[in-house]
Structures are given as C-alpha cells and as structure tokens.
Specification:
953 residues, alpha/beta, TIM Barrel, Rossmann fold, Aminopeptidase, 4 domains, 13-stranded mixed sheet, eight-stranded parallel barrel
C-alpha cells in the first residue's frame, strides 16, 4: 500500500474534484445529456459506465466517448475519464456493430475450446475493438466459480465449476485485455457462483458458504488474478450469511472489502462497489447512507448506473459524511491515488481526445473475423451422438422434411440488453427494442428464424420451423412432428425455464414411439441443441444426440449449421468437472459387506442410528455428517427423522412390489454390532437404482466402511435388469431426498466425498419438504382463490382404482423415481389416500395431479416427518404438472390449496409437503403458510458410467 502514500498534485485539495473521482455513473441516452454534462462539469465525475442503452454503433460510440472526454477536458479535469464497458462476448455485449465489432464465444464457450491461448487472443481482439472507440476500462473478466451450476443466473458468463479452470481462463482474459491497453476489473467478488435466492424482491441473493469454504474454492480465481496484476475489483451487493459472518451487502462491509479483499488477498488496486441503485439497498439503507458505508468499507469508486436523482443523493450523502467527520480526508486521498494510478495505466489526454475509431476497426476487421470463426468452430460441442445422427446427411434424403423447434427467449438476465428490454416493455413503439438494435443477442424469434433459413440454404429438402412456449406440445406441433423425418429442438437455459425441459422430453417421447406403416416401431431422429447453458441435458442419457453452442449469436448458430451438415468435425468439450469421466474410485475393500437381515440386525441398527445421532454436530441432526475429501466413510444422519426402532423399520423397508430393495451392513460377527448400514432400492417403472441412506459408526469413520458399503451397493444395482440410471436420494422412502443442505461446510465436505466416488455433484437438483402448522387458524392468501379461477383448469378429488387409468397415464410425462409407486399406493388405499386432479375444462385432459394422504396410510410410513411432527397431520405428495400445461406455479398452488382445505376439514393441524421441487417454489408456497422443513440436493447419473468403471464382484 506504500505506493499510494506518494504526494498528490495540489489540484486534488479541491473537495469537489477529489470526490468526483470516487464515483462511476451511467446515464440514459445515446448523446451527452444535460444530466451527465452537469455531473462532469460541476461535480467533476471521474468515471462513466456505458451500457447497451447508450450505444448504437461503433462510429456513434466513438463520437459519444470523445464528447464525454472533451466535456471533462473543457471542465478542467486533471485526468481523463475512466470509461467502462461490459463486453463479455456471447450474450453480454454492450456494444454491437454488424460491420466493425465481431462476435466471439461466451466465457464458457471459450473454455469449451480447451485453449487458453485462443481465450487470450479473443480477449485481446475484443479489447482492441472497444479501445478503438475510446473505451479504457473493461468491466471484466468474470471470475465466479459456479458451485451449483443448475441454479445460477450467471450461466455461460463464467467458465464453469472448476476453480482452477476458471482461474486460468480468467487470467488469460485479463492478460488479453491488458495487452490491448485497457484497465481490467474482476467480478463479482466474493463470487456470485453459489448464491441462494430466497425471499422477496427486497431480499438480496445470499452467499451461505463460510469464509473457509470460499477460500478453498470460490476465491481461487480472484486470488490468482490479483497476483497477476488485476487493476480493479467489483465487490457485489449480495448478502453473506454463515458462521461468524452476517453481511447485508458485501460492498458495504468492511469485513469483506478491507479484511478479506485488502488484508487477506492483498489487493491494492481499485475497489468498485456494485450499483447502489439496487432496490433492496436503496429501500433498506438509502443511497446517501449506502455511499458513506461503501467508502468506509474500503471501496474506492461508488457505482450508480443511471438515476440522476440517486446520483445527486449519493453526492450529497458523501459530502455530508465528510462534513460530519464520518469519512476522513486521508482515507479519500488513499482511494484517489489508487484511481489516478489506474487511469495512468490505461489513458492519457492525448489518447482520450484522439480515439482511432473506424479507421483502426476497418484494419482489424479481416483478422478478427477469421478469429471469430475459429473460436466458434472450436467451441461447438457434441456431447452425445449415440445413434450417429450427425451429420444430417447420414439420416435424411433430399426430399425429407426437417423440423426446427425453437423457444421464445429473451437475452441473458444479467445483460445490459435485458435491462434495456425491460425498459422498452411498456412502450408501443414499432421500432425494434433497444437491445435488438444494439446488442449481439437478437430476439429469440428473429435469431432462430435466421437459423431456420441457414438450415434451409444448406439442403434441397424443406425445413419446417415453428416456436414453442410454456403452453407445451400443441396439436400443430404434433402434426409437424408426424410430417418431419428428423427434428431439431433448441433449448436456452432449460434448467431455469422448466417448460423447455418438459417440452423437449415430451417431443422426445413422441419420437421414441413412432411406428412405420407396417406397424414396426421406428424411433424418429431427435437432435437437441442447447444454445446457452450446456447443463440443460448434459447428464440426461434419454437425449441421444445433444449439441451445445454456449450462446445464440448469429455467428454461433452459423457454426452450428456447419456441424449439423458435416462441414467440419466439432472439437469442443464440456468445461469444468462435468467433462471429467465419472469413475468409481478403485479402493481396496477392507470390510466384509453382508446383506441386511431384518431379524438379526434390527436391534443393532437401532443402536447404530442412536450413535450416529449422538455423534452429530449440534444443529446438523437431520443432515449427513462427517465426510471429508480424504475420508472413506460417510453418514446419512437420521436423527430427528428416525428416532425409534419402529420408525426405522417402517421407513427403510418399503415392501412394494414395484421396488426391489437390498440393504447391506458391515458388522462384527462376534458381537453382532453394526459398524455401517446402506439401503438401496431399484424402481422397475423407471429403471432407477437408488442409494437411499448410508450410516457409519462415528467412532469408526475414515476406515473405508462407507466406501465398502457404497461399492457393494453400486455393484448390486448394476445387476438389476433394466437399470438405466443411478440416483443419490430417494423419494420412497423419503428419509433423504439427496444430500442435505443448509450448512455450508458440512454440505461441501459431503459433496466432495460423493464426488470422489464418481457422483457429479455439480449437476444436483434441489428438492425439499415443507410444513404448514396451525391449520385451525389458517386461511388461503387473499385473492388466491380468485386468481386460480383464471388458471384454465377444473380441480377435483378422486379415490380408488376406477380413476387409475388417466392418472397413471398422466404421470408418465414425468420419469422421476418413485412417482409410479407413490400413485399406485395411493390408488390402492382409498380409505386413507386420494388424488387431487387439475383438468382442462374443454376435454377433461389431466394437467396436474398430487397425492393426498393421512397418517393412517401406508405412504405415511415412508415419510418420517409425518411421525415426527408431534400432532395430527396430513400430507401432500409428488406433484406432476403436464408439459402441455400453461402456468406451472398457478396449477401447483391450486392443487396444494385444495389439499390443505381437505386436511384442515379432517381436523389436522399440520400439513406436510414431502417431495417438492426446490427451485422457484419457495415464494408461492411461503405465501400459503409453508416453511422449509428439510432441503436436499438430488443427484442422478447414467448407469453406463458406473458399468464402465465399477469393480467386479
């Protein structure tokens, strides 16, 4: 920090000039507005953020930047403006020019090429283009590690879930930017890759990992970028909540900025706050107070994106804090020196007032066009092509018709383009939306229409093209599917847009059931293309041919067409841990594993469970515990869920004709004591093999007991006829639905342990159980009943086998483990169970179902929470919403609302939801009176992976 102690020019004794350098602000408009001019001239604003809403073309951008710098020069600024831009490529480019600015793959797309050198060249080329327009600060690279890839909005903006890989590509990007003369800014410290999205819009996303956990994983890329000379760091506005750390907004926390970033990671560059205009911050703290907090936390530049009112409020708050002695002038001079030093690296007045613009861009265009094509061609990834459908000439004759099915999508949620789209949403202007004119992501309808044309130009046969929405597979889709000889389905973040997942699976199912005119079964070729996150169907082996492009720019889809028609062989590979083969760890089996004998082992199992409960960390009594990356044992702690011998037997032993169960023990044959237990289930209906629970005596962990049990379980399940997939966590019985979550360090150790055994823990699915209490005083939320009337469905409650046909046919649209068995149990027990149905009014087709049951049912025996609730309770289980249904959440709420009314009428005081999708349901169900009971990460993998690597018996 000594470099910032040098004497500053006396010009900075002027308070206005000093304060202005410590702000970065944005504005509305494509020309210099009176507001931004006033900020530069009167408040000596030192840095400006430009976004898609400001930029039309390379030529206009060059002119705008020059006018801004000229305004600062004429106002007597001692140093030029720092002008920042998000130009991450892929779907997040603030500046787009069809002629002069090239499109390049997203960060994850570049990681898929496997070439750090190519990543460096692309970063350098990107920086050269925007530098030619006068930009001097790159708001990048993105250094976040995707801890849970399915749930994060960052998507392809970062390179993946492997911290070392994210780090190496991040440094390559940074060096490319610096080589072109730009200052660099890492984001989003301390990582947006593991955010939990909870509560209302006024609650910020939260990091729940401990600092220790972050240090081992998420902070690795930030630490390495700092060592390699990163100029600036953006600290996010997220909350942090873990042991010893409770932060409302990271960028306002001295513990995060000064302690963690400055002292622990030794960063002495410029710290830039997240935008203080965020709704939660302005509502809870206020922009003026937030500005003072940010500076005192250690931020050097405070960011305010566009609101002139908020910008004035921030300036006033800053001055008031200085006048009141809340901020010291020496503290400000330290920040000022950092900012001035950064500007000295990336700009001078000579450079700022003479941007080369089009003259340089026209010279760069030929080589950059070649680089763009090379990068995209190298990134396209064929994840699977089981039946060798590629190239299309292998399977199609010239006269055959090809069907293209594409979703209606918006730009990436995190992009400036998307914000501009939201701004346009309330206008009736016939002009294209701002983002469509000035960002590299066009509307889904427009860009996919061009994809269809490109496909048609490459072949003599006809290409049929239509879109799909949350309304699912409609009759027109079915007609086109029947006509076509092959189908291409495009998805864009189907892991967050669940209707895309349902639509794709539905079409795939239809095509798998096609027959020839002679009555012979003939699968119709289906190719699924993910044009954003590669995780949509990366592990779903039912999708036989799966291709990833990582973004849906025109250039990316041009490369896709070439792959589909065999013009080149794609060499891209999925980035991060997902690309690593899932191999069962080969470990010497130290312990003899025997089949569980109920008569012999029941009492000993009861003792084992009690020892596991007593050996658990307080507060983790319903969680798996004691697993580390080096341990060879793990325990799934029953604790609150199973406290008695009777509960254990009824919950672990399913005794269902549709489920083959085999349980194993490691025991002392002399004392009859159990050292470990593992339960497995094979669900015939879906071909799913499940590991439901693993317990190890706490005094005998790290001795390979858990590993030995796991190996025996895998080998046994592999021998089941019809095995298709493996799953960690079981719906039936629902002792554990997967890896329990809620305690960062423990969860991380468990995920690491199972990852070392071959489970791809990055591709988990969030599931949970919930509870509503005090039903006697419960009433539906105001207006809910009325809103359900617009759901386009009729609801009813039925009992018994006479309704089985349509119900069992309906649930086939969902291949989740245990569903068929749960519904069969409910239909066979009409005295204690019922089915609540949502039906389409016009034809009676089922749109959704849930199971309703009481404590006397057989199903309740497999739900430990029903026994542990301590009061009369009813249960709602296993919702299935048809892919053709419209509003998923509204139908789900309607089914649950009817269930709660029935349970209340039966005199129950509590309602258990025992198997709910954990993504995106909390807000709606919380409003209905539910709170979280247990949360889990359900993990699946393809059986062929284990078959290739499992040891022989």
């Amino acid at each position: 920090m000594g470099s910032h102690d040098a004497k500053l020019d006396p010009v900075w004794d002027d308070t206005n000039k000093l304060l202005g350098q410590l702000f970065m602000m944005g504005f509305e408009g494509t020309t210099v507005t009176p507001q931004i001019r006033k900020l530069i001239q009167e408040h000596h604003l030192g840095s400006i953020l430009l976004t898609a809403k400001n930029l039309k073309s390379a030529e206009q951008t060059t002119q705008l930047v020059l006018e801004l710098q000229q305004c600062a020069y004429d106002a007597g600024h001692s140093v030029p403006l720092a002008i920042g831009l998000d130009q991450e490529n892929g779907g997040v480019n603030s500046l787009f020019d069809e002629i002069y600015i090239r499109q390049y793959p997203s960060a994850m797309g570049l990681a898929a090429t496997g070439s750090r050198d190519l990543a460096y060249e692309v970063a350098k080329a990107t920086a050269e283009e925007i530098s030619a327009c006068g930009i001097n600060l790159m708001m990048g690279p993105v250094l976040d590690v995707l801890t849970n890839v399915r749930n994060q909005p960052l998507g392809v903006r970062t390179t993946g879930d492997d911290p070392q890989e994210v780090s190496s590509y991040g440094v390559a990007f940074m060096k490319g930017y610096k080589e072109a003369g730009l200052a660099t800014m890492g984001k989003h410290f301390p990582s947006y890759g593991s955010l939990e999205f909870l509560g209302s819009a006024l609650d910020v996303p939260t990091i729940t990992e401990s600092l220790e956990s972050l240090s081992l994983n998420a902070l690795v890329p930030f630490r390495n970028a700092i060592k390699q000379g990163l100029d600036a760091m953006m600290v996010g506005g997220c909350a942090m909540n873990s042991a010893g750390l409770n932060v409302m907004h990271a960028c306002l926390s001295e513990q995060v900025v000064n302690d963690l970033l400055r002292n622990d990671l030794h960063f002495d560059g410029v710290v830039i706050s997240d935008c203080l205009e965020m709704e939660a911050l302005s509502h809870n703290i206020g922009v003026g107070g937030g500005t003072v907090m940010a500076i005192n936390a250690g931020c050097d530049i405070v960011l305010l994106c566009r609101s002139f009112v908020h910008q004035q409020e921030a300036l006033a708050g800053f001055k008031l804090g200085l006048e009141n002695g809340m901020i010291s002038r020496e503290r400000l001079r330290t920040s000022l020196k950092r900012v001035v030093d950064m500007k000295a690296k990336c700009t001078t007045w000579e450079k700022a007032l003479h941007p080369p613009g089009i003259s340089l861009l026209s010279k760069l265009q030929p080589s950059h066009t070649t680089l763009s094509t090379k990068a995209y061609n190298s990134s396209i990834t064929v994840v699977r092509d089981k039946n060798r459908l590629l190239p299309l000439t292998n399977i199609m004759e010239p006269e055959d018709e090809l069907l293209l099915l594409t979703p209606l999508v918006k730009p990436l949620a995190a992009s400036a383009a998307s914000r501009a789209l939201n701004d346009q949403a309330c206008t009736d202007s016939p002009e294209p939306a701002v983002w469509e004119r000035s960002a590299s992501v066009m509307s889904g309808e427009r860009v996919f229409r061009e994809l269809g044309r490109s496909l048609a130009r490459q072949r003599s046969g006809r290409v049929l093209h239509t879109s799909y929405t949350a309304n699912g597979v409609r009759p027109q889709h079915e007609n086109l599917i029947n006509r076509a000889s092959a189908i291409i389905i495009v998805t864009a973040d189907a892991n967050r847009n669940l209707y895309q997942n349902g639509f794709t699976k539905h079409v795939n199912m239809i095509c798998n059931l096609q027959y020839t005119s002679g009555g012979e079964k003939r699968e119709k070729p289906v190719i699924v293309v993910s044009v954003s996150s590669p995780y949509d169907f990366a592990m779903d082996q039912t999708i036989g041919t799966y291709v990833c492009t990582y973004d849906f720019t025109e250039t990316a889809l041009n490369s896709l067409v070439k792959v589909l028609y065999g013009e080149f062989t794609p060499a891209g590979a999925l980035p991060g841990t997902i690309s690593q083969s899932q191999k069962l760890s080969q470990s010497k089996q130290h312990w003899l594993v025997e089949a569980f004998n109920e008569e012999r082992d029941s009492n000993a199992l009861d003792v084992l469970v009690k020892s596991v409960v007593e050996g658990s960390t307080p507060g983790l009594r319903s969680e798996m515990s004691s697993a580390t990356s080096n341990s060879t044992s793990a325990a799934l702690n029953l604790s609150e869920m199973l406290c008695t011998h009777a509960n254990l037997n009824s919950a672990v032993l399913v005794r269902n004709a549709g489920v083959l169960e085999a349980h194993f023990v490691v025991r002392n044959s002399s004392t009859q004591a159990l050292y470990g237990f593992c339960s497995t289930y094979f669900f015939k209906a879906t071909g799913t093999g499940v590991i439901g629970a693993v317990f190890v005596d706490p005094s005998r962990r790290k001795l390979s007991i858990g590993h030995s049990l796991h190996s025996r379980a895998i080998r046994t399940l592999l021998q089941r006829e019809g095995i298709k997939r493996f799953q960690l966590g079981s719906r039936l019985p629902s002792i554990f639905l997967g890896i329990p979550t809620g305690h960062g360090g423990e969860r991380k150790r468990l995920r690491s342990w199972f990852a070392n055994l071959g489970w791809n823990t990055a591709l988990s699915r969030s599931v949970c159980s919930m509870v509503a209490r005090n039903l006697s005083a419960w009433n539906p939320p105001h207006g809910m009943a009325k809103s359900l009337q617009s759901a386009g469905a009729d609801f009813d409650l039925v009992y018994g086998w006479e309704y089985a046909g349509p119900v069992l046919e309906h649930i086939k649209t969902n291949n989740r483990q245990g569903l068929a068995e749960v519904y069969n149990m409910a239909l066979a027990d009409p005295a204690a169970c019922g089915i609540i149905r949502a039906k389409r009014p016009d034809d009676g087709a089922l749109l959704g179902t849930v199971v309703l049951y009481n404590m006397r049912s057989q199903l309740a025996d497999s739900v430990p929470a029903m026994k542990d609730i301590g009061e009369l309770a009813g249960g709602i289980s296993s919702p299935v919403i048809s892919p053709s249904a419209g509003d998923y959440s509204t139908l789900l709420q309607g089914l649950i609302l009817l269930g709660m009314r029935q349970i209340k009428q039966q005199g129950c005081n509590a309602c258990i939801l025992d198997y709910m999708d954990g993504d995106g349901v909390f807000d709606g169900l919380s409003a209905m009176g539910f709170s979280l009971l247990h949360a889990f990460e359900e993990i699946q993998c393809d059986a062929s992976t284990w078959a290739l690597s499992a040891p022989t018996s």
